[in-house]
């Protein structure tokens, strides 16, 4: 039966090649489109989550929702050593984060202030690679590092002073004047517009929160499943602490990803509709051309189910052939653009930056995307084959042989 | 007395329409083992319809067809397909071979449907192709064979399943005189040597001359049976 199906495919070489090519291009186009979409998000999530915020964060219960310093944690009371014993936990990063009005006297902007210890930070905030001018502040110094976008807005440079005005722990006034020791380019455009980094102790002092932390980031070993770590850590949180994973920290990011994915899905669905009709056309032609032969085969004793099986097999060979070639050909493209993202420029760059997205198009190399689209085409192949099955099952040998 | 292979009783086939057409109109016939029978008559007389009914390809309006004691008019669609596979060989006017299979594969195919072992399929296909004078042409596809050769492959295919009888619908209609003579000689030889029962629907005098029993049909009725 396999041999019969295979030979039937090559009966009309031209048509079979066109069908295979149509499926192949459909898979290539769908996979490329999806790879860019997923790749951009993957990169962004990796940047925001892995480099800056971490996959897991511990706060005083309610802090993340209210963003109030009054919901800070006493760092001496945290069982950090116990957390670090959990498999997959590399370190616990201490932070104090709040907001402040930052002013030069000429202009001002509401900013996110992060009190950190760069040497223990996640890669995106270690500041060695991010500093574009000046240097990293000394621990405990009255110096800050300003993100490039904020520095441009405030028109400040290294050596300038910034005034901070905010509300500290338990309603205390929080203010200070700090010198800009360096300007850092933060890869996330949203953070790059509003972030000020200062030594942890300086932030604790300014916010009247000595010994307090708002955030403990659980830094994970590479390749660790954060959900497993969360499960292991959860019993250690007690009643006062909350352990949040990144999806809970950034629900709006998840929603944006889902909305964008849904938009892309519409394009891909249209594409699949087109390819479904191409395949259906092939099946209709094939059934029409071979109706007489089908009648003969049933006449000489071939069960309709067997005949239907052969035609489904033919169709699946065509669609799978196209899908496999497409999946293979698109792989190098995925790898290339993963390491060499398309750098957007001009109006498109500005438009994308308005949405706080990095104006670079990365791809993902995840083979799951290729497999998914291969599977969709396979399913379409089965679906359109049902036309042939339906025609065969209602075939009348005498009428078919007269056709 | 020979064993009856086919027994037809009060067979009728009416095609409904604005004016109903009685393609087969109350035929009673018995065909016994080893016959070489021709159903003759003008075009539209009902011989092909009768052949289709005998082959279980079409359902009669009324009456019965018993083949080897089984009334095929009562069988379900799948039972009929299986019955045809094991009991009836077909030779069609237009050869109707599978174009993507070689001569040998066309003959073997029917045995594949019968789930016979590969060795048996290959041996019998070769034997049958040799019997119809196509030794050396086993690997050729229908498109590479002449009309006469294709029809001989069709005869070999019809015999491959070891049927009770072979139904041949205008088997020589597309053949030249030499090919017709060859084909008829082969079928006559198979009939005489192997006792295979052949029933032809034809209006070809060359076939009718070879037949040992000639049934004339007109307006769906048996006009004469000689």
Number of strands of chain A: 14
Number of domains of chain B: 1
pLDDT average of chain B, as an integer?
Answer: 88
Mean pLDDT of chain A equals: 88
Number of strands of chain B: 10
Biggest β-sheet of chain B, characterized? 6 strands, mixed
Helix coverage percent of residues of chain A?
Answer: 40-55%
Helical proportion of chain B?
25-40%
Uncertain ranges of chain A: none
For the record, the count of structural domains of chain A works out to 2
- H-E string of chain A: HHEHEHEEEEHEEHEHEEHEHHHHEHEHH
What structural class results from the helix and strand content of chain A?
A: alpha+beta
Uncertain segments of chain B: none
Taking strands numbered 1, 2, ... along the chain, how are they ordered across the largest sheet of chain A? 3-4-9-6-8-7
Largest interface: chains, residues each: A-B, 20 and 24 residues
Hey, roughly how much beta strand do the residues of chain A contain? 15-25%
Distance between the termini of chain B: 18 Å
The CATH homologous superfamily of chain B: P-loop containing nucleotide triphosphate hydrolases
Describe this structure in words.
The complex is a heterodimer of chains A (403) and B (226). In chain A, helix 10 (251-289) crosses helix 11 (291-299). Chain A has two domains: 2-47 and 253-402, no CATH class; 62-238, no CATH class. Chain A is 53% helix and 20% strand. In chain A, strands 3-4-9-6-8-7 form a six-stranded mixed barrel. In chain A, strands 2-10 form a two-stranded antiparallel ribbon. Chain A is elongated. Chain A is α+β, with helices and mostly antiparallel strands and 403 residues long. The mean pLDDT of chain A is 88. With 226 residues, chain B is α/β, with parallel strands linked by helices. Chain B has a single domain (4-225), classed as Rossmann fold. Chain B has seven helices and ten strands. Chain B has helices at residues 47-54, 77-87, 103-113, 118-131, 147-160, 177-194, 205-210, and strands spanning 4-15, 21-32, 36-40, 62-67, 70-71, 88-91, 165-169, 197-202, 213-218, 221-225. In chain B, helix 6 (177-194) links the parallel strand 7 and strand 8 (197-202). In chain B, helix 3 runs parallel beside helix 5 and helix 4 (118-131) crosses helix 5. Chains A and B meet through helix 1, helix 11 and helix 15 of A and helix 2 and helix 3 of B.
């Amino acid at each position: 039966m396999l041999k019969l199906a295979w030979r039937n495919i090559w009966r009309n070489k031209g048509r079979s090649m066109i069908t295979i090519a149509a499926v192949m291009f459909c898979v290539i186009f769908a996979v490329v489109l999806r790879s860019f979409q997923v790749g951009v998000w993957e990169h962004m999530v990796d940047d925001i989550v892995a480099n800056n915020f971490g996959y897991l964060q511990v706060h005083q219960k309610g802090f993340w929702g209210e963003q109030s310093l009054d919901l800070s944690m006493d760092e001496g009371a945290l069982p950090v050593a116990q957390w670090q014993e959990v498999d997959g936990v590399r370190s616990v990063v201490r932070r104090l984060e709040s907001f402040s009005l930052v002013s030069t006297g000429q202009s001002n902007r509401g900013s996110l202030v992060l009190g950190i210890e760069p040497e223990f930070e996640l890669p995106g905030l270690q500041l060695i690679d991010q500093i574009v001018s000046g240097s990293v502040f000394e621990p405990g110094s009255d110096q800050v590092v300003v993100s490039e976008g904020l520095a441009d807005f405030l028109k400040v440079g290294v050596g300038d002073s910034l005034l901070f005005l905010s509300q500290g722990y338990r309603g205390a006034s929080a203010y200070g004047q700090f010198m800009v020791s360096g300007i850092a380019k933060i890869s996330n455009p949203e953070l790059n517009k509003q972030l000020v980094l200062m030594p942890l102790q300086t932030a604790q002092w300014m916010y009247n929160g000595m010994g307090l932390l708002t955030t403990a980031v659980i830094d994970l070993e590479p390749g660790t499943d954060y959900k497993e770590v969360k499960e292991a850590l959860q019993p250690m949180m007690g009643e006062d602490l909350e352990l949040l994973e990144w999806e809970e920290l950034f629900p709006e990011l998840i929603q944006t990803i889902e909305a964008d994915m849904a938009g892309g899905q519409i394009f891909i669905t249209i594409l699949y509709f087109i390819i479904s009709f191409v395949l259906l056309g092939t099946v209709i032609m094939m059934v029409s051309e071979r109706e007489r032969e089908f009648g003969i085969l049933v006449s000489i004793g071939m069960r309709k189910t067997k005949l239907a099986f052969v035609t489904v097999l033919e169709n699946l060979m065509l669609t799978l052939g196209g899908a496999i070639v497409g999946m293979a050909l698109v792989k190098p493209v995925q790898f290339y653009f993963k390491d060499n993202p398309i750098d957007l420029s001009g109006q498109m760059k500005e438009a994308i930056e308005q949405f706080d997205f990095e104006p670079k198009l990365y791809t993902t190399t995840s083979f799951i995307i290729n497999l998914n689209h291969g599977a969709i085409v396979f399913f379409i192949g089965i679906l359109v084959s049902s036309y042939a099955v339906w025609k065969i099952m209602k075939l009348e040998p005498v009428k078919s042989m007269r056709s | 007395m020979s064993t009856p292979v086919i027994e037809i009783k009060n067979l009728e086939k009416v095609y409904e329409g604005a004016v109903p057409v009685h393609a087969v109109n109350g035929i009673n016939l018995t065909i016994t083992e080893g016959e070489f029978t021709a159903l003759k008559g003008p075009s539209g007389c009902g011989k092909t319809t009768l052949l289709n009914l005998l082959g279980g390809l079409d359902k009669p309006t009324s009456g019965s067809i018993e083949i080897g004691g089984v009334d095929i008019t009562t069988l379900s669609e799948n039972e009929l397909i299986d019955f045809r596979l094991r009991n009836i060989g077909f030779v069609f006017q237009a050869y109707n071979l599978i174009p993507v299979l070689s001569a040998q594969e066309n003959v073997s195919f029917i045995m594949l449907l019968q789930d016979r072992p590969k060795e048996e399929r290959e041996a019998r296909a070769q034997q049958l192709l040799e019997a119809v004078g196509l030794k050396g042409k086993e690997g050729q596809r229908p498109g590479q064979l002449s009309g006469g050769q294709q029809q001989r492959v069709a005869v070999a295919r019809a015999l491959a399943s070891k049927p009770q009888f072979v139904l041949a619908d205008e088997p020589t209609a597309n053949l030249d005189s030499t090919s017709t003579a060859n084909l008829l000689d082969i079928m006559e030889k198979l009939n005489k040597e192997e006792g295979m029962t052949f029933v032809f629907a034809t209006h070809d005098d060359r076939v009718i001359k070879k037949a040992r029993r000639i049934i004339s049909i007109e307006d769906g009725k048996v006009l004469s049976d000689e």
